[in-house]
Every structure is written in C-alpha cells, then in structure tokens.
Specification:
The chain is an all-alpha fold. The protein has 3 helices and no strands. The chain has one domain. The radius of gyration is 18 Å and the shape is flat. This is Spore coat protein CotF. It holds the Pfam family Coat_F.
Length: 93
C-alpha cells in the first residue's frame, strides 16, 4: 500500500488540515452567498459550521502542543476591532 504522505510530521499534517479547513470555509461562504435555494443554503451553512468547528479543534490541538503561537490581543485592540466592525455592520443596514 502506498503512503500518501511520506515523512510528514504530525505538526505538518495538522497544519495542512488547518489550512484546508480555512480554504473549505471560504468555499462554503461563496456557495452560501450564491445559493438561491433555501434548502441548499441551510445545508451549506451546516457544512460551514461543521468545518469551522473542526478547524477550531485542530487549532486548539496545535496550540496546546505549542505548534501555533498566538499573540494575546490588547483590550484596546479588541475594542477598536469591535467598533470598526459595528460601524461597518451599521452601514450595511
């Protein structure tokens, strides 16, 4: 039987999975915005949510192993981001 990923470490495999989840999430977002059938939109939304949950689980596993370093957000940066996105959301209404 052929090994499809010779010599790849667990870290490399998990990084590939994380990247793949991000790409699939983007594809589902496009599909949802383009779908005119409510049933299809709901199915794609469910798939999107499942993929996002999987992505988060992979992210958490990598973070716990020290393979995904994150920078803690400063409170003022969080507030600034909230303000920015709230303003953008209000402009769309």
């Amino acid at each position: 039987m052929m090994n499809n990923h010779p010599n790849l470490s667990e870290k490399e495999l998990m990084n590939d999975l994380l990247t793949s989840c991000k790409q699939v999430t983007s594809a589902y977002n496009v599909g949802i915005t383009e779908a005119s059938c409510q049933n299809l939109r709901q199915h794609l939304t469910n798939c999107l949510n499942d993929t996002q949950n999987t992505q988060y689980q992979i992210f958490e596993a990598m973070k716990q192993r020290g393979w995904y370093q994150i920078k803690k957000a400063q409170p003022q940066d969080v507030q600034s981001a909230k303000t920015k996105y709230n303003q953008e959301a209000n402009q769309l209404q």
